[in-house]
Structures are given as C-alpha cells and as structure tokens.
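// run 5 | inverse folding | seed 20
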C-alpha cells in the first residue's frame, strides 16, 4: 500500500466528510479503553495468563472474520466502481472518494488482522526465565489491536453506508410532481 495514497488530499477530505465514521471509530476506542480499565480494576496480575488465553482465543475468531470481510469488501469496492462507471459518466466524485476510503480502511483492517494473527501465535504458558512483564505487554498489545480492529471495522461500515446512500440518491428516479 502506498503511504502517499493515505495522505492524498481528496482521501483526507472524504474522511473529513464522514463524521459518523470518525465518531464511530472514536466511540469504539473509548469503549475499549473503558473495558481495559475495568479489566485492570477487576483482575490481578496473577490472573493475567487466563486473560491472555481468553483474548487470544476470541481474537482468533475476530481477526479471521475481519480478514475475510476486509478481503471481500475490497473486491466489492472494485465491482462497485465498475457499476458506477457504467451507470453514469458524471457520477459524484465524492462517491469515488468514499470508495477509495473504504478500500484503504479495508486494506488496513486486513493487514492489522494478519498482525493480530501473528501476535496471537506467540506462545503463552508458565515458561522458565520469562518475566511477568512479558505476559502483561503481550496482553496489552493484543487488547489494543483487538480494539483497533473493532474501531476500524465500525468506521469502514459507516463509510460504506455513506457511499451506498450517495449511490442510491444518484440512481433513484426523481418524482414528477
């Protein structure tokens, strides 16, 4: 993925025009931070292994599902561009920006899902010579990635909804009154 694409002005404008997606992302991140603070208040370091085992198991399903959805979304965005081009040559440029943004967020979700799969594959257990800090760091990293994946997925859905609504507005026949 080209980093310059992420910094492209029209793409940033599209993100700025999708305030519900930004709000959704922030809300999920805040909820994740709140959940993490509750975990810290409820569980002690001695129960960290159980927490880590639990988040690794649930994270495996989550990131597998998100990776599948992200790959499918990327393919569907390519299809949507083709359909929009056939429907109308003068289609609203903001729709193309939204499709680009959905593609970028889907690709980001896919890459982060693969990273989470790698993090989840790190072995846990009572090993000799492994400091307790290892498990705490591994838990924090895993939890942070899970929250980020949830937040970026919610934002992607909200951006996609915006793009779909714009397409529907443009192709819906006007009422003759």
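// decoded
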């Amino acid at each position: 993925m080209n980093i310059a694409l992420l910094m492209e002005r029209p793409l940033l404008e599209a993100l700025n025009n999708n305030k519900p997606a930004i709000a959704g992302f922030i809300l999920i991140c805040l909820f994740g931070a709140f959940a993490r603070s509750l975990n810290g208040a409820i569980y002690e370091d001695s129960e960290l292994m159980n927490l880590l085992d639990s988040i690794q198991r649930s994270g495996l399903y989550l990131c597998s599902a998100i990776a599948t959805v992200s790959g499918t979304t990327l393919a569907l965005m390519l299809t949507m561009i083709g359909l929009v081009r056939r429907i109308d040559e003068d289609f609203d440029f903001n729709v193309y920006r939204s499709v680009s943004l959905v593609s970028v967020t889907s690709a980001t979700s896919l890459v982060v899902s693969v990273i989470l799969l790698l993090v989840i594959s790190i072995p846990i257990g009572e090993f000799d010579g492994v400091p307790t800090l290892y498990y705490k760091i591994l838990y924090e990293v895993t939890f942070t990635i899970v929250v980020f994946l949830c937040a970026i997925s919610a934002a992607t859905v909200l951006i996609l909804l915006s793009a779909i609504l714009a397409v529907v507005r443009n192709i819906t026949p006007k009422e003759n009154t």
